[in-house]
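dumping this here so i dont lose it
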């Protein structure tokens, strides 16, 4: 039997997105392999998490490419990005909460590239007048990650319907970032 690294990582990510404290035995069982095989291919939890990060970043880059964030109105591009993120939402939820990925000097440059692409979309929306200008693109990027993760968790827990994924995220995010015409002063 050949070792399917991507399938093992996808199975591990699916389990870890639901149960971040899963043991190596539980991860191996979820992936349908022995703990020894898991350890042979991924040196401990740190090695597994770093491999998950690499796969996750590749998948997120593919999501960005699919969403075409530089095309059309920024609002439409943001909706496309959210919709395209649906298949990797649980993966992103796990990665976004895995503190070891963001500590020290060993932060993967892939995060910076991804952050820059998303921030550029928000900046474009601000420059075109679609999005509020009083919120930084960096903050909006982190808010987007948080909303994607929250949607993934509530769907996994059965508290919201999967069909509501895009509407939940874009409704809340756009409702908070859209520029509104100034109304009458409240005195």
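and the seq i came up w/
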């Amino acid at each position: 039997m050949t070792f399917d690294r991507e399938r093992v990582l996808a199975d591990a990510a699916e389990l870890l997105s639901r149960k971040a404290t899963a043991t190596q035995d539980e991860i191996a069982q979820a992936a349908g392999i022995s703990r020894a095989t898991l350890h042979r291919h991924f040196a401990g939890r740190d090695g597994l998490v770093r491999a998950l990060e690499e796969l996750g970043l590749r998948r997120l880059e593919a999501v960005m490419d699919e969403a075409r964030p530089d095309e059309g109105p920024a609002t439409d591009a943001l909706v496309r990005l959210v919709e395209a993120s649906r298949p990797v939402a649980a993966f992103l939820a796990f990665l976004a909460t895995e503190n070891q990925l963001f500590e020290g000097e060993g932060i993967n440059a892939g995060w910076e590239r991804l952050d820059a692409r998303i921030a550029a979309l928000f900046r474009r929306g601000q420059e075109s007048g679609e999005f509020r200008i009083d919120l930084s693109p960096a903050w909006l990027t982190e808010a987007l990650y948080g909303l994607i993760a929250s949607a993934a968790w509530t769907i996994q827990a059965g508290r919201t319907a999967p069909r509501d994924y895009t509407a939940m995220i874009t409704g809340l995010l756009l409702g908070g970032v859209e520029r509104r015409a100034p109304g009458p002063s409240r005195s």
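Residues 37 and 116 are 37 Å apart (CA to CA).
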